[in-house]
Amino acid sequence: MSIQFVKSAKEFQDYLKNNTYILLNFTASWCGPCQAIKAIVDQAYVENKNVEIVRIDLDSQRDLAEKYNITSVPSFVFVENGQEVDRITGANVQQLMARLQEFNTKAQGHKRKGKGLGAEDVISSNNDLKDIKSLIPKNFEILNSTIDYSGYEVLNCLPLYKDSKTRAVVDLKDSLDKSTVVSDSDSQLLFYIPFLNISKIYSVLIKVKSNKDHGTAGNLNLDSDDLEEVQQPNLVKIWCNSQAILSFDEASSDANAPHVEKVSDDNGDEWLNIKVKFVRFQNVQNITIFIDGDDEDYHTLIEKIVIVGVNGDSKEQGKINAGEEE
């Protein structure tokens, strides 16, 4: 992953929460020395893997600049366990690199985690997801924590539970117990999922089968008769970088979607492991997912969508096996 700009105070707190050792790079687009030292700091990020480094724009994040008393840029603030322990002001490369190497050595054994948790951390903290561990290759991440919910849209989608929301199906903070959604008026669902960072998509995992009792009709948005007319998906289509969410007519009629997956009736897996053509899903800002069932009069049910890939412009992309691009 490349060095990211902090986009909000909440995102900054996520970085502090998930990283014991972090370097804050205060910068500005109009600052010549900042641009001159940028490539050097980027390379240092690759070499010093124990320390998270984030960039903070002086103009767009004034509150953070004031919090750390930043009066000039570039400024570099070293933070350990949430507390400032040192700082360097100006583009003093020799001093900065020496201090960063010392900081990285001190951080030995602490793996940087960006603003969120790695795939293993996410899975270990959520028992509902433990069965997808084997479906995520080494060096790939779960990207759900980078979804931009301000632009998230769904069509013809109904939460199964009255006290749930449609975003629960992709929000890992919501357990599988209450994340189930169904198609509303017919068998089709459409999801428009934008990301905070430009990413690379490896696969989309869709939880489609459950043996649990969904409860009584009193706490559900479906009545008992509708519950008898629930089905699993038999078709999934995926697009990337759409300007806006597609219409159902566009999605259902597009035979040349970047990825089309037909699901067999005898699929015995609880998770659909949809491996997209990796070369087609580079530099992804958003994805659109169309899901349909076999019977247009039935409700199509899914419990969770997990997106797997590489967050940002990674220097160490996950490796795919020969033949997976075909």
Whole-number radius of gyration?
Answer: 22 Å
| CATH structural fold name of the largest domain | Jelly Rolls
The structural class is alpha+beta
How many helices? The count is: 7
Percent helix: 10-25%
Query: What kind of sheet is the major sheet?
Result: 8 strands, antiparallel
How would you describe the shape? elongated
Give the rounded overall mean pLDDT. 87
Instruction: Give the low-confidence spans.
Output: 313-318, 320-326
CATH architecture of the largest domain: Sandwich
DSSP, total strands: 17
Count of the domains:
2
Q: What features would you describe in this structure?
A:
There is one protein chain. This protein is α+β, with helices and mostly antiparallel strands and 326 residues long. It contains 7 helices and 17 strands. Strands 6, 7, 10, 12, 13, 14, 15 and 17 form an 8-stranded antiparallel β-sheet that branches.
Describe this protein with a few key phrases.
alpha+beta; 5-stranded mixed beta sheet; 326 residues; Glutaredoxin; disordered C terminus; 30% strand; 8-stranded antiparallel beta sheet
Summarize the structure.
It is built from seven helices and 17 strands. With 326 residues, the protein is of the alpha+beta class. Residues 1-105 form the Thioredoxin domain.
Task: Summarize the helices and strands and which ones pair or pack.
Elements: E1 4-5, H1 9-18, E2 21-27, H2 32-47, E3 52-57, H3 62-67, E4 75-80, E5 83-89, H4 93-106, H5 119-124, E6 141-142, E7 153-155, E8 157-159, E9 181-183, E10 189-207, H6 224-227, E11 230-231, E12 233-240, H7 248-253, E13 259-262, E14 271-275, E15 284-293, E16 299-302, E17 304-311
Parallel strand pairs: 1-3, 2-3, 11-16
Antiparallel strand pairs: 2-4, 4-5, 6-17, 7-10, 8-9, 9-16, 10-14, 10-15, 10-17, 12-13, 12-15
InterPro entries: Galactose-bd-like_sf (IPR008979), PITH_dom (IPR010400), PITH_dom_sf (IPR037047), Thioredoxin-like_sf (IPR036249), Thioredoxin_CS (IPR017937), Thioredoxin_domain (IPR013766)
Organism: Candida viswanathii
Protein name: Thioredoxin-like protein 1
